[in-house]
Amino acid sequence: MEHHNDGGDNDNDGDDDGNSQYLESFEIDEARAKEIAITFAKALSDCTDARDAMENCTTEEDYPKASMDLTMCFGKTLCQVQHQSLVKVVGEDNDAKTEAALQTLTECVMLKAGERRIAREQHPHLFEE
Fold this sequence. Notes:
The chain is an all-alpha fold.
């Protein structure tokens, strides 16, 4: 992806800036937005327990595990390929591989969440809770 500076846009705060700018200009058609809404609704209902656990964290130590459980849960619905890869390497007892697979899953879930945010902005009527 080309990264050009078009003036005073604070481009120096890491490389994820280009990503969110890229996503902002992303057009999502209604059919795709509907798909995103349905998939997310399923993920949200499947992950109620994990969401509750995260909201009920009482200590700093609880938070990372609850956050990971929620990412894993969302990943099962939103990022099936990445989720299956992670499940496969967890059994291999290889920390580096597990870490990499978890990172990939987390990035996928975050990307899907960003996509949902944009779909919701462009097609709010599809996302009424």
